[in-house]
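Title: Prediction job returns without error message
Component: structure pipeline
Severity: low
Priority: P3
Assignee: unassigned

Description:
Job completed but the reporter wants confirmation the result is attached to the right record. Sequence as submitted:
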Amino acid sequence: MKLDIAGVARQDGASAEFAFSEQMPPFTFGGLDYAFAAPVRFEGKIVNQHDFLEMTGRLQTVLQLHCARCLSPFEYPLDVEFEEEFARTEDPDHPDRRVFEGDVLLVDPLVEEYVLSEIPLEQLCTPACKGLCPVCGMNLNEGDCSCQAENADRHPFSVLKSLLNEDEEV
């Protein structure tokens, strides 16, 4: 996605509002793939503050993620408010300002950065997700399997269960 800033970048005090929606391609970060289940809505305002451009706005989309416990795909809505500053040259006094060239800002890197900053570290379809059976791989959200009952006594730590007396305090 590209944002034309020609009119704003050339005149101090100039401002412009923008709003566009576009389906973005999936991207990979840290070995994980992130896909967009809905178009990315990017809207806001950009203002020329003499020696830098100030952009404020909102990003809205829906991501297609996979649950960390049961591996099922699920949709995760995002609604992010943002504020960015852009300058034509690097300024050591303002290290957070992004450098731009020409009359167009590339928005894709911003979208990816905002997405990565907003998704949870552990991506779960629901907070109560039961995950997969470690023996047969059945999704325990869809029902119970007989593996857990059959293998309960074969677990290497099952002998510790006999140390606990339910009537005594630990």
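Comment from assignee: result matches the submitted record. The chain has a mean pLDDT of 88.
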